[in-house]
Automatic annotation (TrEMBL), chain A:
<feature type="transmembrane region" description="Helical">
    <location>
        <begin position="241"/>
        <end position="265"/>
    </location>
</feature>
<dbReference type="Pfam" id="PF00528">
    <property type="entry name" value="BPD_transp_1"/>
</dbReference>
<feature type="transmembrane region" description="Helical">
    <location>
        <begin position="20"/>
        <end position="38"/>
    </location>
</feature>
<dbReference type="InterPro" id="IPR035906">
    <property type="entry name" value="MetI-like_sf"/>
</dbReference>
<feature type="transmembrane region" description="Helical">
    <location>
        <begin position="144"/>
        <end position="160"/>
    </location>
</feature>
<keyword id="KW-0813">Transport</keyword>
<feature type="domain" description="ABC transmembrane type-1">
    <location>
        <begin position="73"/>
        <end position="265"/>
    </location>
</feature>
<keyword id="KW-0472">Membrane</keyword>
<keyword id="KW-0762">Sugar transport</keyword>
Automatic annotation (TrEMBL), chain B:
<dbReference type="InterPro" id="IPR035906">
    <property type="entry name" value="MetI-like_sf"/>
</dbReference>
<feature type="transmembrane region" description="Helical">
    <location>
        <begin position="38"/>
        <end position="64"/>
    </location>
</feature>
<feature type="domain" description="ABC transmembrane type-1">
    <location>
        <begin position="97"/>
        <end position="307"/>
    </location>
</feature>
<keyword id="KW-0813">Transport</keyword>
<protein>
    <submittedName>
        <fullName>Multiple sugar transport system permease protein</fullName>
    </submittedName>
</protein>
<feature type="transmembrane region" description="Helical">
    <location>
        <begin position="243"/>
        <end position="265"/>
    </location>
</feature>
<dbReference type="Pfam" id="PF00528">
    <property type="entry name" value="BPD_transp_1"/>
</dbReference>
<keyword id="KW-0762">Sugar transport</keyword>
<feature type="transmembrane region" description="Helical">
    <location>
        <begin position="133"/>
        <end position="156"/>
    </location>
</feature>
Amino acid sequence: MPGSTTLVSRRNSRRYAADAGLLFVAAAFVLPLAWVLLSSVDPKADLLVKVPDGVTLDNFDAVLKPDITFTPLLNSLILCGGATLLTVVCAALAAYPLSRFRSRLNRPFLLTILFATSLPITAIMVPVYALFVQVDLIDTMQGTIFFFAASQLPFAIWLMKNFMDGVPKELEEAAWTDGASSFQSLLRIVLPLMGPGVAVVTVFSFVMMWGNFFVPFMLLLTPDQMPASVSINDFFGNRGTVVYGQLAAFSIIYSTPVVLLYVLVARRLGGGFALGGAVKG
Amino acid sequence: MTSAPPAGPGVVKTAPGPTAPPSTPGGRRDVRRVLTRALPLSPAVVLLLLFLAGPIAYCVYIAFTDLQLTGQAESSFIGFDNFRAAFKDDAFLNAVWLTLVFTVLSSLIGQNTLGLSLAVLMQRASKPVRTVTGGIVIAAWVLPEVVAGFLLYAFFRREGTLNAVLDWLHLPSQNWLFTLPILAVSFANVWRGTAFSMLVYSAALNEIPKEITEAAEVDGAGGWRRMWHITLPMIRRSIGTNLMLNTLQTLSVFGLIWVMTRGGPGNRSQTLPLFMYEQAFQKSMIGYGTAVALLLLVVGSLFSLVYMRLLRTEV
C-alpha cells in the first residue's frame, strides 16, 4: 500500500502539531496557577510568578489560625455539608417516583425542573435578600442552607433521575414480591446500585456551593458566620496592605477539598467525566 | 397549575404502578398509590416552592414597586416606572452593553471556540500532553470562583505576570485592569470556564464513529474540510447545548468580576449582575435593582427555553 506510509507520517506530523498547540495553551493556563503555588511558599511574595529565593511555610503558619482559616472553613463545611445533605436526600426521594412510576405529571414536572436548572440564580439574589429580611431568615445559617439546597435541587433531581433510570427495574420487582415497600427498595436496592451516581450528585453539589461567593455574601452579615468564599476578601482592604503570600496560602487551603473531591469522583468514573455527558441529557 | 397534556388514549387512566396489589378495593389502592408517588416528591417541591419559586414571584412583584433599603416603612406600586427609568439610564445601558461584550467575548467566542479546539487537538495529541493540558485546564475550572478571581487579578495587575511576559517578549505592557477591564475579566472567564466546553466536546467527539472520519481521510478530505463537513454537523447538538449553558453561566457571573475589578474603574466592567447589586445595595434602591434582576431573569428564561427545545426529545 503506497498511500499508507504517507498517511502514517501525516498523522505523526499532525500529532506533533497537536501536541505543540496543547502545550502552548497549557503554558498560558498554568501561569496563574503557578503564581498561587509559588507565592504560598515565597517569603517575599508579590503579584509576579517567580521562583522564590527560599522556601518557607511561614505563610501557612500565619493563616492557620482560628479567625483566619478554621472558623471560615468550619462555616463553609456547615453550610455546604448541610445544604448538600438536604439536596441529595430531597433529590433522591424526588427522583424515585419520577424514574419508577409513569404519571402524566412527570413530564410537566421534569420540564419545569429542566427549565429551572438553567435559570441565572444570580438574578434573584436581590429579591431573595429582600424576602429573607421580611421573614427573618437573613443572616442565619439555616436560611442560607435552605436557599443553597433549593438552588441546587433542580440540577440534582435531573442528574439523579438520569442515573436512577439506569438501574434495572427487575431487581426491585423481586424485592416487592418479597414484601419490601418502595422506600425500602429505594434505600436498599436502587441507591446502592447507583452509588457512583449518588457520589457524583453529592460531590457536584458540594463543590458548587463551596465555591459560591454571591449567595453567602448576600445572605450572611455577621463576620463569624462567613464561609471561606467570602472571608477570603478580608485579605484585601481591612488589613491594610495585602500580604500576597498569605492570600496564596489561604487560597490553597481553601481550594484543596474541592480539588481532592473532584479527583476522587473523576477517577472513580474512569477518568471520563459524567457531568459533561449528563448535562447533555 | 399544570394542565394535562393533549388527550391521548392512555391519558385519563394512568398506568398501574408496580406497587398496586392486584385485588384491593379501588379507593384505597388509589390513595396509597398517590401517597407513594407524591410523598417522596414533597420535600423537594416544598423547598423549591418556598426558596426558588417564592423569590422569583417576589422578584416579579417588587420590580414594580419603589422599595428601598432604608428608612421607608412601606413601598408603593409604581408600575413600569423602574423599567422606563432603566432604559433611560446610561449606566444601565452601559451594563447591558458590557454584559453583551462579556458574553460574546468570553462565552460564545472564547470558551466555546477554545474548548472545541482543545477537544479536537486532544483527539490527535499524544497521551502525556493530553493528560497534562487537560489537568491544568480542569484545575482552573475546579477552583472556587473567588480564588480564580484572585489568581487572575494577580495575573493582570500592572506589576503582574502578564506584563512581565510581555516585557520579556519586548511587547508593550499596560495596566490591563485599568485600560481594558472588560477584556481582562472576559479572559478570566475564558480561563475559568473553558474546561466545561472542552469536556462536553471531548465527549461528543468520542461518539463520532472512527470509520466515518477515516473514510473521509482516505478519500483525501483535508483537516478543515473534515471538520466543516463531517465533525461539526455531527456534534451540532452538543454545540447548541454547550453554547446555551455557557451563555447562561456567563450571564450570571458575579464573584469573578467583583474580585478582579468591582465593576470598575468607574463602571467600565460593570455587567448587569454588578449593576443590579450596586443599585439595590450601594444605592439602596431594591425596587430598581430587582427590575434589572427581572430583566436578567427574563433573558435567562428565554435562553433556558431554547435549551429545553434542544433537549426536548429526551424528556
